[in-house]
Amino acid sequence: MASAGPQPSLAPPAKAGEIPALDGFRAIAIGLVMLSHVGMERVVPGQFGVTLFFFLSGYLITTLLRREFDRDGSISLKAFYFRRAVRILPPLAFALALATALSLAGLIWPLFYPGLVTDALFLSNYFPLSGVPIGLWSLAVEEHFYLVFPAVALFVMARGGAGRCAILCAFACVLTLGVRLHEVAQGEDFANVAIWTHTRIDSILFGAILACWNNPVVDAQDRLPGRWTSYAIAFTLLAAGFIFRDETFRHTYRYTIQGIALIFLFNAAIRDRGFARRFLDHPLLRIVALLSYTLYLVHSPIVEAARPFAKGPVTPFVMAAALAVSFAVAAAVYVAMEKPLARWRRDVERRWRMRAEAVSPQEDPDSLSPGGLNALR
Predict the structure, then answer these.
(1) Is the Cα torsion angle 14, 19, 24, 26 positive or negative in sign?
(2) Would you state the pLDDT for residue 360?
(3) Could you say which of 139, 207, 282, 366 is the most buried, measured as most Cβ atoms within 10 Å of its Cβ?
(4) Of the candidates 204, 253, 197, the residue with the CA atom closest to the CA atom of residue 51
């Protein structure tokens, strides 16, 4: 996002309308996930990194949907799903191909290749058949959410505005917590409760609540406490979730407490004009954020492939080398695939807008053109 001074060559310049601080949160999230996968899972909360990803995604995409609705009076579902497909599918196909190649080369365990179909259909959080060492369960949760949420948001905003959409999301969060409590009471595997869509979708919904109510980049009035009070509330709630180790709590109420904490944290950090803004918008964090999606997909197969080279206990040097290779691969994918596809996507949307404007009667103030939503994961 926006930052002063020269930018590293990989990081794009800040654009008007971008939301400050989000790149920093994205970089922190991928950092937590990657470090937890290289032997630091006892001290680094990798699961919280995923929760942070979920909240950020819900906040960012719902904010963009709200901006489009406020500008055009509608949301172009065609444009939304086109953007989503171009953003998500090509890097995913690359990551699955990479994991397959590493498996065929004997560097990771053998895969069940027919199971790749469930991976490609975003069903791996319910049917983890392939054995691909990629966190596809979280991607599945997101895609299930975005399969229905834009249409629901359009319907609710058109009839009651963003405030009513926030109320609906809050109700869904309460319902999801109830489902989690029910699943745990039934003695279900706690690991499954952590990855199923119907038990984790509230982590995205909490971000959508902030986007629709008290949005720090849309709503001028701040209904939450001041900056330092909000930081104190957020970190107190997060600390409680980390310190209290009861397994039932950790797989039920913890996700709800973290979601509430992130509402306070994101609101304060995005509105902040001091150190938090400068830190979260640092160019190095922006570069990591730029690569974060592909990093998320490719780092686990690369880390697993590096383990045999340790020839004994896995050393920090081997894991550091694996992470360095992951960054190199992600950078190559960004330059060779993601950046050209983003240009092509913008060109397609530009043609759609021009075509819509050409056929829309100029005297009709309600004529709509596809919005310019830049939906990022």
Answers:
(1) negative
(2) 56
(3) 207
(4) 204
User: What is the percent of the chain with per-residue pLDDT over 90, rounded to a whole number?
Assistant: 82
Q: Residue 135: which of 189, 44, 54 has the closest Cα?
A: 54
The phi-psi region of residue 161 (left if phi > 0; otherwise alpha if psi is between -120 and 50; otherwise beta) is left
Q: What is the pLDDT of residue 310?
A: 66
Phi and psi (nearest 5°) for 224?
Answer: -95, 165
CA nearest neighbour of 173 among 147, 222, 210? 210
User: Which has the closest alpha carbon to 150: 69, 250, 209, 268?
Assistant: 69
pLDDT one-digit tens code per residue, 239-265: 999 999 899 999 999 999 999 999 999
Please answer whether residues 61 and 375 qualify as being in contact, where contact means their C-beta atoms are separated by less than 8 angstroms: yes
**For residue 260, which phi and psi values (nearest 5 degrees)?**
-65, -45
The rounded distance, in Å, linking the Cα atoms of 1 and 27 is 12
Structural contact between residues 294 and 334, judged by C-beta atoms closer than 8 angstroms: yes
Four-CA torsion 106, 140, 60, 215, nearest 10 degrees: -140
Q: Determine the 3-state secondary structure of 298 from DSSP.
A: helix
One-letter amino acid for residue 11 of the chain: A
Using CA atoms, how far apart are residues 17 and 39, in angstroms rounded to an integer?
39
Q: Is residue 48 within 8 Å of residue 254, measured between CB atoms? A: no
Find where tokens 């995604």 sit. Answer: 57
pLDDT band at 312 (very low <50, low <70, confident <90, very high): low
Question: Which parts of 213-338 fold into alpha helices (H)?
Answer: 227-243, 247-250, 253-271, 275-280, 283-306, 316-333
